[in-house]
Write a structure and sequence with these properties.
single chain, alpha+beta, Glutaredoxin, two-stranded antiparallel sheet, 6 helices, 10 strands
Length: about 200
């Protein structure tokens, strides 16, 4: 529903940002946005990750900065717990893929992102993506991830923190955000809805 998505994103774009600020709850709780923009970015584990090549799996797409200290750790905790559950169920890397994009490659080099990957979840099924600023910017724009320079007294950039759930056909089905509706149960429900419209795994 392009009209709904556009109106919600206008609200999100005008919302005040704090360091690592999430979008508004209204934006995060809507669903049915249409096709997810395709992209290709390098995976720090090697090779490239192309969203369009993930057809048949649900993709949990997140955006973070390796040096983020506020909302990103909340995101980290939710993704870690969900990843462990999906691994135990045997669906991580088979039916569910997680992809995390570094939003501030100028500040956070490949070594920092590799360290973050090792800390979060160094397992198949979770790709950590980092390129240069020129290649990253179009992806951030396509997914309406807002990134601003660090405010005075802060080391990390201001940015929105969102998780896109993309169904096996490549369509956005849910957006979740820390401080709005992101939790392990909510993410698990969103993935089930994306895989089967009835919500049954």
């Amino acid at each position: 529903m392009p009209g709904l998505r556009a109106s919600l994103l206008v609200l999100a774009a005008t919302a005040a940002l704090s360091a690592c600020a999430p979008h508004t709850a209204a934006n995060a709780q809507a669903s049915g946005y249409g096709p997810a923009p395709d992209f290709t970015l390098p995976n720090v584990a090697g090779g490239d990750f192309t969203l369009g090549a993930q057809r048949g799996s649900v993709v949990v797409l997140s955006f973070t900065a390796a040096n983020c200290t506020e909302e990103c750790p909340v995101l980290e905790a939710v993704l870690q717990r969900a990843a462990r559950a999906w691994k135990a169920q045997g669906i991580l890397a088979r039916r569910v893929t997680i992809a995390t994009v570094e939003i501030d490659p100028k500040t956070n080099g490949a070594a920092a992102v590799a360290k973050l990957r090792a800390k979060w979840w160094p397992q198949p099924g979770w790709a950590f993506l980092r390129s240069d600023a020129a290649a990253t910017a179009p992806v951030l724009k396509a997914y309406n991830i807002l990134v601003l320079p660090p405010p005075k007294g802060h080391a990390d950039v201001e940015h929105t923190v969102e998780v896109y759930v993309i169904d096996p056909h490549g369509n956005e089905s849910d957006i979740l955000a820390p401080g709005a509706n992101l939790s392990v149960p909510a993410l698990e429900r969103a993935v089930k809805r994306a895989y089967t419209p009835s919500g049954k795994a």
